[in-house]
Amino acid sequence: MSEAKAGSTVGAAGQAQESGKASTEHGSHVAKLALGALGVVYGDIGTSPLYALKECVTLPHGVVPAAENIFGLLSLVFWSITLVVSVKYILYVMRADNNGEGGVLALMALAARVGTLKTGALDSKGRPQKRHNWQEVKRAKVTLIMLGLFGAALLYGDGVITPAITVLSAIEGLEVATHAFTPIVAPLTCGILILLFWVQKRGTGRIGAVFGPVTLVWFVAIAACGLPWVLRHPAILGAVNPIHAVRFFAAHGKHGFLVLGSVVLCITGGEALYADMGHFGTRAIRLAWYACVFPALLLNYFGQGALLLERPAAVSNPFYALVPSGWLYPMVVLATVASVVASQALISGAFSLTRQAVQLGYLPRVTVVHTSGTTEGQIYIPEVNRLLMVACVALVLSFRSSSNLASAYGIAVTGTMAITSLLSYWVARDRWGWGRARAGGFLFFILAIDLSFFVACSAKIASGGWFPLALAGGMFSVMVTWNRGRTLLGEKIAGSTLPLSMFLADVEARKPYRVSGTAVFLASTRRGTPTVLLHHFKHNKVLHEQVVILSITTDAVPWVREEQKVRLKNFGQGFWAVTAHYGFMESPDVTDILRRCRAKGLETNTADTSFYLGRESLIPKHGVKGMADWRKHLFRFLSRNARSATDFFAIPPNRVVEIGMQIEF
Questions:
Q1: Average pLDDT, stretch 527-544?
Q2: What are phi and psi of 60, to 5 degrees?
Q3: Cα torsion angle, 217, 46, 160, 483, sign
Q4: CA pair distance 544, 564, nearest whole angstrom
Q5: At what angle do helices 411-430 and 104-111 cross, to 10 degrees?
């Protein structure tokens, strides 16, 4: 008995040791992810101290750096970061994950899967009954999709302005040393931006490995710069009292409210917390925020406030005024590197956002280059890269200073934040089971904050805020036009499609000559006989021994399980129907699809397989209902410049046969 007891004690100790080891290893993994999140997730918000408080005390949009104003501004900064980032995103929005992925399009796809609407009645188990109200469901889906698309369009505006303002504000530190550097600030900024966009084609794997450590050094540095001034004027910590914010609004009235358009600069980048959730996970992002980013930001902002209490003349650039004179140039270099890291995160985000939009059917096919053999998310899209580079350089040359660019910054970010709040309400209601009062109450709280920032930023539309809105409007028009055009085109093709059963009956009756090999016909719809197959049979009068009708669909999830990727149906007479499912974070590959089919009974040999694609020549027809004429011409332009299906679906180019057809729409 004693031996048994001793044995059980040893076993328990061993299990505890193993459990502790596993826990340590898991903790180490989360810590590594948190370090990586510093660079990718927090690069944007981490460089906001370069310009945020400066804009709050710079006229005409800011206020003079008097003591009462400094306390009021710091109170607004503290509570903005706390409520928007710590409460809204960290605690609330990050719960709305689409199979682990975040971001406005992932949230849109999740919210748009509303299939039922709750009634007030309860079932036998006390749970709310659900009823299908397809009219309401359809209207809700359309509304949610439009919101999500406009939020995505606004993110493109953010992706253009962020690299320009962060790099420019970092280089402006040279002007603190001597005004002799002023003429070269804009050209040097353009040179750095061009170099940054040029290296994108080489991939971000090696650069990304140093993102976390570099950004960690940055946060330590900005905290170290702010801490001595906070210790020198500890009374500045009293600004956490929200009474100072209330007094600020009471003293300045309407202008005090409009200052929120500058205060919002301290939370730009908050949307990245949610967008990059799938790369690092919620635990790592939260750990990085509370352990490093949040305290470092507060120390620097409060340090700048303490500095301005003592030296109001430092209002021209309070961030660099914190830095001891001997460390100014090293800080400019570190700030430039940190701004490049923040810009890289936004550029990579634009690539990922574009791929999601393409896969979900809201943008035409683009060139997606995978820059890593192991990481699916590391991609490069040359078309987007070129457009971003031209737009960023044009912004720097047009606005010339970070203060001027700040007038254009904020409205895109706050618009996206408000849209995220609205979409998360539907997720809370339909997915989390929250009641109308609970979900609506929280929505009212966070939307009041978002809309306050948005309205305040709207005052800067004439001085630069028009740019991200114009860019977002253009992108939104492109996305809805492409989606609507593809829908109309699909309906047009489906209307002239022969049912597959009739085609198979005709083949059985006529018994055409069958040549050896396999023919794969790509179909945009899973119903009927593909038009390209009908044209092929009409003109060539023969069929291959094996005919595969392949449809590739994108589901409203980021990743599709391996066992659900491919579905087959055998119609006999050598005819097969294959439906391949992909998520909006995945890239389709026809060769991989056929490899998966072999395991399910469809034998193919790539060397003996031909791929048939249809190439539509679109002819806009005036007066035909469906889209305005200008949208038809836009759709035609997009269609003609879309990447070829051969490249996009990774089809062997020497095995492709294209059959042209004209379609009026």
A1: 88
A2: -90, -15
A3: positive
A4: 28
A5: 30
Give alpha helix (H) positions in 360-430.
382-399, 402-406, 411-430
The answer to whether the CB of 102 falls within 8 A of the CB of 353 is no
User: Each residue of 266-299: b (16+ CB within 10 Å) or e?
Assistant: bbbbbbbbbbbbbbbbbebbbbbbeebbbebbbb
How many C-beta atoms lie closer than 10 Å to residue 485's C-beta? 22
Kindly report the pTM of this predicted structure: 0.83
- Ramachandran region of residue 464, left (φ > 0), alpha (ψ -120 to 50) or beta? left
Distance CA 357, CA 558 (A): 12
Please state, for a pLDDT cut of 70, what percent of the chain lies above it.
89
Mean confidence (pLDDT) of the chain: 84
Residue 596: other Cβ atoms inside 10 A: 17
pLDDT at 219: 96
DSSP character for 315? G
Nearest-10 crossing angle of helices 182-198, 382-399 = 180
Q: Which helix (H) or strand (E) holds 553?
A: strand 542-554
**DSSP sequence for 557-589:** SS---GGGSEEEEEEETTEEEEEEEE-TTS---
In 89-211 the beta strands, taken as DSSP E runs, fall at 117-122, 128-131
Q: How far is CA 545 from the centre of its chain?
A: 45
Strand partners, 568: 578
Does position 133 have pLDDT exceeding 80, yes or no? no
CA separation for the pair 409, 393 (Å, rounded): 16
User: Looking at residues 33-41, what average pLDDT do you find?
Assistant: 82
List of residues 6+ apart from 396 with CB closer than 8 A: 164, 168, 186, 189, 190, 193, 405
> What does the pLDDT read at residue 15?
37
Supply the CATH classification number for the domain 37-118+130-483.
1.20.1740.10
- The pLDDT of residue 17 is above 80: no
Alpha carbon 414 to chain centroid, angstroms: 15
Query: Left (φ > 0), alpha (ψ -120 to 50) or beta: where does 103 sit?
Result: left
**Do residues 438 and 128 touch, judged by C-beta distance below 8 A?**
no
Backbone angles phi, psi at 513, to 5 degrees: -70, 135
Burial group, residue 17, by CB count within 10 angstroms (0-12, 13-18, 19+): exposed
**DSSP for residue 324:** -
Tokens of 17: 């040791």
Which of 120-129, 368-377, 517-526, 569-578 bottoms out in mean pLDDT, i.e. has the lowest?
120-129
Using alpha carbons, select from 411, 449, 360 the residue that is nearest to residue 92: 449
The tokens for 250 are 């009471």
Domain borders along the chain are 37-118+130-483, 496-664
pLDDT score at 446? 94
Compute CA 427 distance to the chain's CA centroid, rounded to the nearest angstrom. 18
Comparing CA positions, the residue from 150, 169, 203, 167 lying closest to residue 389 is 167
Check residue 646 and give its pLDDT: 87
CA-nearest of 159, 43, 162, 151 to 106 is 151
pLDDT band at 255 (very low <50, low <70, confident <90, very high): very high
Q: What does DSSP say about strands 379-380 and 369-370: parallel, antiparallel, or unpaired?
A: antiparallel
Measured CA to CA, the distance from residue 70 to residue 237 in angstroms comes to 11
Q: Which of 68-72, 130-134, 147-151, 403-407 has the lowest mean pLDDT?
A: 130-134
- pLDDT per residue as tens digits for the range 445-490: 999 999 999 999 998 888 888 988 999 999 999 999 999 998 888 8
DSSP 8-state class, residue 524: S
The SS3 assignment for 57 reads coil
